Amino acid sequence: MGKLYVEAKPSVDLNKNTEWFMYPGVWTTYIAILFVSWLLVLSVFGCTPGAAWTVVNLFHFAVTYHFFHWKKGTPFAEDQGIYNALTWWEQMDNGKQLTRNRKFLTAVPVVLYLIASHTTDYQQPMLILNTLAVFVLVVAKFPNMHKVRIFGINAGN
Amino acid sequence: MVRLPYTTALTTLFSYGLLFVFGQLRDFFRKLLGWIRKPKDQLKGYAPICLGLEDFYVRRLYLRIQDCFGRPIASAPDSWFDVVERYSNDNNKTLQRSEKTSRCLNLGSYNYLGFAAADEYCTPRVIQSLKEYSASTCSTRVEGGTTKLHVELEELVARFVGKEAAILFGMGYVTNSALIPCLIGKGGLIISDSLNHNSIVNGARGSGATVRVFQHNTPSHLEEVLREQIAEGQPRTHRPWKKIIVIVEGIYSMEGELCKLPEIIAVCKKYKAYTYLDEAHSIGAVGKSGRGVCELLGVDPADVDIMMGTFTKSFGSCGGYIAASKEIIQYLKYSCPAHLYATSMSPPAVQQVISAIKVILGEDGSSRGAQKLARIRENSNFFRSELHKMGFEVLGDNDSPVMPIMLYNPAKIPAFSRECLRQNVAVVTVAFPATPLLLARARICISASHTREDLIKALEVISKVGDLIGVKYFPAEPPKHLNQGHNKLE
User: Fold this and answer.
1) Is beta strand B189-193 parallel, antiparallel or unpaired with respect to B244-249?
2) Contact indicator for A130, A117 with CB cutoff of 8 Å
3) Residue-level pLDDT at B480
4) Which residues of A touch B6 (CB under 8 A)?
């Protein structure tokens, strides 16, 4: 099997918290993690595939909301706190909206929602939870929500 | 431009994700336990000194492999030196020094010309100047700290580099970070290479000018950025920029690459921007007579407006210099805070540089300088070609004494470092934040004092370690490799 090589160009992004997202293989890793976690949930709980997708969807909602839209700043001190008021989503691509990476990250929760609701046959308790999750995630990623803090939630340092 | 196998990219991202998840879990439990236990002597009402998430990288990733960084040494950093052994009782959170040292081959020091240890021409003169002028001038340059040696060195540096005048500073990092604010301020534009050193980034940030970054070593992108910025002018007011400075380095210390200087100078001249060349790693190490990238690439030093360099790498001393036209140096002498308020360079250090430059130029009466330059070129090219043949991914151009070997996965960093140390070869591994997150590497610095036997031993050890941890990403001879694999399985 021939090895498949990719090129990693040094990116122009100075923010070391987000520049790792520009490298090859990130999208594939993201999707692979989602798929493998679905298999894990199936094997640990032994539930129906639909319930497993719902669990993955809700877990994905909790994790991505916390790390992309709640936590602000960067996990290292070298940049002297210039990004301390911005969440990871707002720091991405230096604040430029509607880039390829942002469109991909907006599409993933929608696709997950479609898979989860299809495999549960649109039954009630799961459907409302999935819908809530995708609604919150997609609205948080709108360009108009850049740097918006509703009712001042999460505005403090 | 680094090429890596796709599966390596996936596994590296996954490993960092896993490390991140474990770090967050540990932080979560620590917060939980802290909330439950609630220590008695808490300063009420005071703001925390550092935000909990700001040092996440240091606490959860760096401290795990802390023993690979900051190893104390117990002798001069010659081609062989003594590394102090350390041990830890609490899983690398704290390290204790032991009494034992091990003699290791030095592949990490910036000892390009071999001046780091005792030298037959330099050391007696340095000891003589220590007796005459003592260890410190105890004063700033403008008060009582300018000795005869300082003036002699400034003239010598200017002559060596090919500019009209030079000014010295006590520290290489400070030369950049305290000087760029002197040259440009608010209303100016700094365009710097995306992989520039932290000192330049700090200096640019501290100057108050607008900073733009162009893609590493790509003159076409530099031209694009220049055109866009000149057309737009200053942010918000759109007035023309007060001045534009383009900052590049001679050899990029993390890539080992040479700068594409002729093309970049041509672009800057076309758009009337000033150029600032940081030759920290290239002065004294490349070029036929050691005068740096300008000599190597055939660029006239008069075309570069400001040339900066340090004495720590090729000259075995400490400190930095700026060489430029007489007017700029005179201006700096009365406006740069590192000259006005900082203590001047220590006289023995100045004498070391004077003697080293004299040896390089051949003015000490022997041909040792030319021999050293030829030897470092031979050593670097030999080492790099051998590493390529073995299948490692080595960055850097020919003739450059800095060669990073790409590791990528975070687990391979401590594996490479510790295994090499066990076999008595000391290498420097570099991870985030000095390099991008996914491109961790082991950086090898070749010296003129390495003999052919030293290099062959180093190659053997690195090859064995590379096989063990699987960093030979470009296997050169597939059929032989397959046969060997079969034998190993049986």
Assistant:
1) parallel
2) yes
3) 46
4) 3-6, 24-25
Taking CA–CA distances from A17, the nearest residue in chain B reads B437
Q: Does B195 touch chain A (CB under 8 A)?
A: yes
pTM, rounded to two decimals:
0.88
Give the DSSP letter string of B304-346.
Answer: SSEEEEESSSSSSS--EEEEE-HHHHHHHHHH-HHHHTSBPPP
**Residue A46 zone, left/alpha/beta (φ > 0; ψ -120 to 50; rest):** left
Complex confidence, ipTM: 0.87
Nearest residue of B to residue A5 by CA position?
B5
> CB distance B17–A25 less than 8 Å?
no
Structure tokens at A11: 């990116």
- Looking at the complex, report in whole angstroms how far the Cα of residue B437 sits from the nearest Cα belonging to chain A: 6
Instruction: Quote the tokens at residue B244.
Output: 């534009």
Please give the Cα distance from B339 to B178 (Å, whole number).
Answer: 9
Residues 50-79 of chain A whose Cβ lies under 8 A from any Cβ of chain B: 71, 73-78
Across-strand partners of B277?
Answer: B248, B307
Percent of chain B exceeding pLDDT 70 equals: 96
The predicted model gives B133-159 an average pLDDT of 92
3-state per-residue secondary structure call for A124-157: HHHHHHHHHHHHHHHHHCCHHHCCCCHHHCCCCC
Residue owning tokens 């710097």: B192
Q: Do A12 and B214 touch (CB under 8 A)?
A: yes
Beta carbons of B215 and A12 less than 8 Å apart: yes
B51 touches chain A (CB under 8 A): yes
Task: Report residue B5 as tokens.
Answer: 């196998």
pLDDT in the model for residue B39: 66
Whether the CB of B54 is below 8 Å from some CB of chain A: the reply is yes
Strand-strand pairing, B402-406 and B274-278: unpaired
Residue B225: closest C-alpha in chain A: A12
* A27: nearest CA partner in chain B: B10
Neighbouring C-beta atoms of residue A149, cutoff 10 Å:
12
Q: Is B4 on the interface with A (CB under 8 A)?
A: yes
Find out whether B202 and B181 touch, Cβ atoms under 8 Å. Answer: no
What does the pLDDT look like over B313-326, one tens digit per residue? 989 899 999 999 99
